[in-house]
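Feature request, filed as a ticket because there's no other form

It would be nice if the structure record came with a short human-readable summary line next to the tokens. Right now we just get the raw output. Example of a typical job, pasted below so the devs can see what we mean:
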Amino acid sequence: MIGVSVTFQYDEDFDRARVVSIAENARGTFEGMPGLRSKVFTVDDARRRAMNFYVWESADAAKRFFSEEMRERVTGLYGVQPAIDFVEIAQLVDNSAAAHKAELAERVLRRR
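Raw output as currently delivered:
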């Protein structure tokens, strides 16, 4: 697995509402995307930045996605050029499946 950190660092022109709106509008694009295991959109008001973190099944899938065309597109969308860093993921802990199972079990018990 490969992680990709995409950081948009702003100066004085940081617009939280714009960053949140981009995330809300883009979410559907990434749901079910082949090769993409997960994506997190973040906002850091104190540091005036947005950072998105992707978890890809393979380096090839990640590199294909982050083409020069994609970099130009997100630069236009966010208004600043991103810093894109690829990292190897040594281990991943994903508790979402366990949480989902617990939630379903709780619903079943409530019905009884």
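Something like this underneath would help us a lot:
Residues 2-111 form a domain with the Alpha-Beta Plaits fold (CATH 3.30.70.100).
The helical segments are 16-30, 59-65, 68-78, 96-111.
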